[in-house]
Amino acid sequence: MTMTNWQAQWIWGDGEESPRNEWRCFRKSFEVPHCEGGNPRASLRITADSRYVLTINGTQVGRGPVRSWPFELAYDTYEIGHLLKPGELNTVAVLVMHFGVSTFYYLRGRGGLLAELNDSEGNVLAATDATWHTSRHVGHHPRASRASCQHAFAEYIDANLWDSSWMQQQYDPANWMQSVVLGPVGMEPWTVVKPRDIPLLTEETITPVRVESLAKIKTFQVTATLDVRNAWIDGSEVHANRIQFIGYTATSLVSSKAGKVTIGFLQSGECLKALSLNGEWIEGNRIYGSAPERYVDVDLQAGDNLLLIDVSSHIHTGKLQIGLYAEEDQVVSFQAPANYRENAESAWLRIGPFDVVELIDHQRVRALESDHPIYLEFHDNVRTVDDFVMYKDWIQPVNPRYVSEVDVFALSVWRKENIRYVVPSQLQNAIIPNAEAASVPVFEGYDTEVLFDLGKEYSGYLAFEVEANEGDILDWYGFEYMAGEYRQDMFGLDHTLRYVCKSGRQRYETPIRRGFRYVSMTVRGAKQPIKLYNVTMIQSNYPVAEVGQFTCSDELLNDIWEISRHTTKVCMEDTFVDCPAYEQVFWVGDSRNEALVSNYLYGVQDILKRCLRLVPGSKHQTPLFADQVPSGWSSVIPNWTFFWAIACAEYYEQTADEAFASEMYGHIRFTLEHYLANINDQGLFAIKGWNLLDWSPIDQPNDGIVTHQNMFLAHTLRVGARMALISGDQQGVAVFEDAALQLETAINNHLWNQDAMAYIDCIHADGRRSDVLSMQTQVVASLTGVAKGERKQKIDNYLVTPPSHFVQIGSPFMSFFYYEALAKLGEVDLMLADIRHNYGMMIRHGATTCWEQYPNFLENRANPDMLTRSHCHAWSSAPAYFLGREVLGVRSLAPGWSEVEVAPAPSGLTWAKGSVPHPAGGRIDVSWTVNEASKTMELSVSYPANVSVDVRIPEGYTGNVKELKLQLLK
Fold first, then answer.
1. Model confidence band, residue 835 (pLDDT cutoffs 50, 70, 90)
2. Backbone phi, then psi, for 321, in 5-degree steps?
3. Mean pLDDT for the chain?
4. What does each C-alpha distance from 891 to 447, 564, 643, 804, 968 come to in angstroms?
5. What is the model's pLDDT at position 855?
6. Would you place residue 4 in the very low, low, confident or very high pLDDT band (cuts 50, 70, 90)?
7. pLDDT at position 328, please?
């Protein structure tokens, strides 16, 4: 029975509407009447702001909701009759995690829970109202560090402070409060609640393949993280936009005696413009470390030492991460400066901000007043804490909610000492799923680090069992890549977990999704060995079967196909996401290519339909549509909107769903009309925005006329005309065809360099023509059809033989478009050579997933020595698409794949076989072998009987074709 009406009401606890990083627990016990024939049928509908974990009678049922715009929030439905006990008291328990800040996948709303349990007749067994009990999860520390601008928070759990049995039926919530009713369904900000439009995600237990290493370590004596963004910029929690500001922070480094101290800064390039100690500004040549790490060795006097930090920055996350190391006989701490210490709630002062500018890339904003007189005067005049009195109106204590008690990331990354040991065999018991415990040794005066290797990257929920003493600390830190002694630490992302043990044996499963291959566990403060059991990762992704397959005579291509497959799978959550670690964000442009790959691997359509429908929800931020949704960051990459429109058309080609095409066409027309408003007097598209296509030094300024963007817009206008035709809008067909033709003409008139015989990258806002020539621009010219005649012949020659003086392709994302262009030219041999070269390099470096970038350029890396930033990035999974499409030769010829061709391209291979999903169900199986000496091919194909298939032996070969038509169930 499908329920649409609600008797439940939105509920929460007391306190703030949108508390920062609050975990709140809810319970309701109720009776279920006896019923004949076994368990009753019952369904529970639930949603929450921001995320929930649902338990029925102590059994975990699900997590949610899927990412949504707050004004059309999704709810989940679970069939739970089998978990109910007729004639007994039953309990529904819900953990709600409210972020209290906007991220790249959540817009700040307010804390809330909505749930209703109905029997098969629609009768209400339980519904959220004032009778539900609630309590803040006091074992969770809300002051945990902000994870990143993309995510919410790291995790800090003290098991001593909270009864983990709170969700069990027998638990007594006597000290809990009654819930506060917020209002009915339809209240702000959740004006519409709608049923979930995709299946529930999987939960699969993954066990690490081995304990990688064991070490005793020494790290910082004391650490702290300041959320500078939210502490300095009032109101910045409601959005995730970039901010530029000027200001300072101050604290006192209190030392038990005079001595040397190392100060470390671990944030990723923010909030550290300069620093002074005891009135002396520290020269830049004293600061050392491999970027973005920054360290300085200083001499502290006994007692107070004034530390002043210029935190002025262009920020997104906006964190200051700091650690202090001193020898054991010297105790150091952060304390409020002396004149501010009495009744101080935190050790830090906020000074300023003296000026703030919110940066929105598609809007023009004023320049920051970086030479604000008070800001400059403060720098020159303040030498002691007594000097602060002159600027008292600019100074206030930092609210402690913005200061974390500990920076687990800094403790996990920096080591003063790191002494490795052979891993004893018994320590492997931690990852072997049996009853034997691993005994983790302790070392006097040191912490113990155990490193686990999952074998490849996964995305989900870390879980473990431990037997320990009260107060023993387990710090968990996941990362993606290591090679020998080198670890690529994940600067800019703090997804750490601190777990403070209670006495005895206990199990913990984090409710926060993380992505990593390696995870370290550091034991701190233990006096005797702890026992560790069952370290696991609960992998969670969109539910798919491994329908698509590919193998061939080239083992390197097989390995490349496999890392592409696995990358795509772990980047399929409730939407396509860019990566499972750094961001977990639905980037609109990325998903176009991810969808094509998914079509050839899994053949699932609901996830793509959900992605496409989410995008127009951003029109309240900009009619140009945002580049990642649903997000608190209002940002526009025009190409990403164009790729979304192209993906809408490709969805139609994949499914022949005319109703959905018409639904999307209205949104496509809306945004294209706004893009056309930015056509200038030359007939070219000129805009201020994030004018990105590739991570490489191509000339793509964020204000002006960018050539590749103009070309993709011309192509998208033709897509708009195609969608108009499907939707029966003849006027729209004419408008968009004419606009495309005029734009193509303007591109060829103004953006071609006759001397260089190539398209230039851009015309700058000041009218200056770019002198940069790039492969990226030429690829797009060929792919979109803007280049014609002799120009196209010239451009196509560049694609086959890239000129060395052109900027080369910098990311696998751009390679996708290059491969599309090569496929159009029939250059499959060249495509495979490029795949072997670039992806083979990843394989040689031990990759088990596809990298975000090639190691050619410095863009988007915390350190230029990094091979890439993200080591698992779905926009890079092109081989899984092109190997099926070109080598197996399986391609659709008509909407819905009602007509298909199978035209393999041997390209030097001796055999290949595989499967491609058919969108209507079933699959197309292909197997071929070739004899190059006789130029013969044996080709076998099976496919659904209702599909028309044109099987073709490649030109230059003869051979035999075997076809098998598979009958459909009636």
1. very high
2. -115, 120
3. 96
4. 57, 19, 20, 33, 21
5. 85
6. confident
7. 85
924 strand-pairing partners? 916
Note the pLDDT tens digit of each residue in 386-427. 999 999 999 999 999 999 989 999 999 999 999 999 999 999
Report the alpha-carbon distance of residue 785 to residue 767 in Å, rounded.
Answer: 26
* d(C-alpha 177, C-alpha 35), whole Å: 33
679, 735 Cβ separation under 8 angstroms: no
Q: What is the pLDDT of residue 861?
A: 62
Q: Is 545 exposed, middle or buried (0-12, 13-18, 19+ CB in 10 A)?
A: exposed
Residue 51: predicted pLDDT: 98
Helix (H) or strand (E) segment spanning residue 653: helix 638-655
pLDDT in tens, 225-247: 999 999 999 999 999 999 999 99
The model's confidence at residue 875, banded by pLDDT at 50, 70 and 90, is very high
- Which among 518, 535, 413 has a CA at the least distance from the CA of 456? 518
End-to-end, the C-alpha distance of the chain in Å comes to: 26
Q: Which amino acid does the sequence have at 376? A: L
In three-state secondary structure terms, 186 is: coil
Cα 236 to Cα 59, 242, 249: the distances in Å are 38, 10, 18
Look at the block and give the residue holding tokens 């402070």. 161
Categorize the per-residue pLDDT at 563 as very low, low, confident or very high, splitting at 50, 70 and 90. very high
Q: Which two tokens stand for residue 642?
A: 């164009």
Q: What one-letter code names the amino acid at 870? A: S
Task: Give the whole-angstrom CA distance, residue 847 versus residue 743.
Answer: 42
Q: Which has the closest alpha carbon to 513: 948, 105, 195, 921?
A: 105
What distance lies between CA 488 and its chain's CA centroid? Answer: 18
Q: Give dist(CA 316, CA 151) in Å, integer.
A: 12
What percentage of the chain has pLDDT greater than the value 90? 96
Token pair of 342 as six digits: 């009495």
What SS3 state is found at 601? helix
Q: Cα separation of 22 and 60, whole Å? A: 21
DSSP state of 848: S
Helix (H), strand (E), coil (C) string for 102-135: CCCCCCCCCCEEEEEEEECCCCEEEECCCCCEEE
CA 584 → CA 97, 151, 630, 830, distances in Å?
17, 8, 12, 33
CB 332 within 8 A of CB 254: yes
pTM exceeding 0.85 = yes
In tens, the pLDDT along 12-35 reads 999 999 999 999 999 999 999 887
Tell me which amino acid residue 723 is.
Answer: M
Computed from CA positions of residues 558, 560, 561, 565, in that sequence, does the dihedral angle turn out positive or negative? positive
Alpha helix segments (H runs only) across 484-577:
555-570
For residues 524 and 182, the answer to whether their CB atoms sit within 8 Å is: no
Say if CB 389 and CB 340 are below 8 A apart.
Answer: no
How high is the pLDDT of residue 792?
97
Distance CA 416, CA 325 (A): 8
Q: Which of 654, 648, 646 is nearest to 599 (CA)?
A: 654
The upper half-sphere exposure of residue 337, i.e. CA atoms within 13 Å in the direction of its Cβ, equals: 24
